[in-house]
């Protein structure tokens, strides 16, 4: 299977050709969404948009993008509406009409945004996505140009519940903003005279820029011809809930958030797994490509076992979790991964993955390793069982889809067809990541949601 990730956003202001930098940063963020890609360019108060289905090269094959003072963009993994057709940025308002337009590129998911909008008296049809609702709210709060976009954002955003790391524009400025709980990351960077915003610092480095700092929870940062200005939304940081799953799966291994390296977190998690759940005898370690490679290295380091390339990944294949539809995810795994007979035949294998969500990946991999002649297959997972839907940016909205929510731990190994199975505990994972454990969202592992969530979340189907 493939998990759907959390979307990637990027923005650039200043310099020769900010849209080209945004395009390159989006390619560096492609692991966060593969369903659609889009860019908006700010040109003398106007917003010009290009959006298309698929990956960045599919959406912008010819690289010819309009020039302007600034640009923002998005790679989408939909948590709402239609993935390929609902590309962002979303633009509301007309560049040539009265007032100002607003462009929104959003990472995260809002919890019941239609209800919030209706309470504010803004009409929003049911079929709008969460991002479209937010764009309409922002546009309404700008009151036909009577209020600036930063003022409108300070007024409208605190009325919404959920996760948003976003880049916004009204054609004359670039804004980066994170929800007050700081679920998903957003980073500020600089390249010469150009200010950069990106979901991950690895994307800033990918264009030759230098990360400056993370935006804080609830920070609203404005970049314009008048320079850079930082402000805070009401309620900023009163209860921080950074997504723990960013460290497990979403983020690139070469990113860091809040000074904590994703690589170190994954390596430490693998080492802890090696201490808590060593193999039952002689074995070789095999990583489930791609994200689990570092955790598998940590496991092998701790146990002293050799790590072998027992599974290889087709170079062009993307992430399978973020593929839409169960049958498509299963095919994606068979197309993407293959077992290496020469590395595993006749051996006991410890197969390390970062997570089990729907269980699609693990069932296929155990089967492939057995087909390739592995004697025993012992599965080790570098995070706790994923049992609760995420309402903040991951497309796991129903408990019925989540393997560990529906099958007891005792039955799971039989279901996956492996000889033994062990997960990392939450305490060990938090310790591996570092920082204050109280400042993370861990709802998908514990069911303890940091916001109100729909009652259906508590149900098993
Ligand atoms: O239990 P599941 O529902 O299958 O989800 C978990 C799997 O999905 C992800 O891999 P993915 O193929 O998306 O990306 P990767 O290549 O970065 O590991 C994750 O790394 C796990 O391997
Ligand atoms: N994965 C995300 O961050 C999704 C953003 C937004 N909720 C959408 O559906 O497009
Ligand atoms: S529920 Fe899980 S995936 Fe969703 S924001 Fe919280 S930690 Fe991240
Ligand atoms: Mg994987």
CATH superfamily of the largest domain: Aminohydrolase, N-terminal nucleophile (Ntn) domain
Q: What is the CATH C level class of the largest domain, in words?
A: Alpha Beta
CATH architecture assignment name of the largest domain: 4-Layer Sandwich
Strand percent estimate: 15-25%
Largest sheet: 7 strands, antiparallel
Radius of gyration: 22 Å
Contiguous low-pLDDT stretches (5 residues minimum) are none
The unique ligands bound to this protein are: 1-O-pyrophosphono-5-O-phosphono-alpha-D-ribofuranose, glutamine, iron/sulfur cluster, magnesium ion
Proportion of residues in helical segments: 25-40%
- Gross geometry: globular
Q: How many strand segments? A: 23
Count structural domains. 2
Task: Figure out the total of helices.
Answer: 16
Please identify the structural class as seen in this structure.
alpha+beta
Distance between the termini: 20 Å
Q: What is the CATH third-level topology name of the largest domain?
A: Glutamine Phosphoribosylpyrophosphate, subunit 1, domain 1
Round the mean pLDDT to the nearest integer and report it. 92
Main sheet strand line-up: 3-2-4-1-10-9-11
What does this 3D model show about the protein?
Pathway: Purine metabolism; IMP biosynthesis via de novo pathway; N(1)-(5-phospho-D-ribosyl)glycinamide from 5-phospho-alpha-D-ribose 1-diphosphate: step 1/2. Catalyzes the formation of phosphoribosylamine from phosphoribosylpyrophosphate (PRPP) and glutamine. This protein is an alpha+beta fold. It is built from 16 helices and 23 strands. It has helices spanning about 20-30, 55-60, 115-120, 130-140, 150-155, 200-205, 245-250, 260-275, 295-305, 325-335, 340-345, 360-370, 405, 410-415, 425-435, 445, and strands at about 10-15, 35-45, 45-55, 70-75, 90, 100-105, 165-170, 175-180, 185-190, 195-200, 210-215, 220-225, 225-230, 240-245, 255, 260, 285, 310-315, 335-340, 350-355, 375-380, 420-425, 440. The strands form 6 sheets. The chain has a 7-stranded antiparallel beta sheet. A 6-stranded antiparallel beta sheet has the order 5-6-7-8-12-13. It has a 4-stranded parallel beta sheet with strand order 17-20-21-22, sandwiched between helices. Helix 8 (about 260-275) packs antiparallel against helix 15 (about 425-435). The longest helix is centred in the middle third of the chain and has 15 residues, at about 260-275. It starts with 7 loop residues before the first strand and ends in a 15-residue tail after the last helix. The mean pLDDT is about 90. The site of 1-O-pyrophosphono-5-O-phosphono-alpha-D-ribofuranose has 23 residues, from helix 12. The site of magnesium ion has 5 residues, from loops.
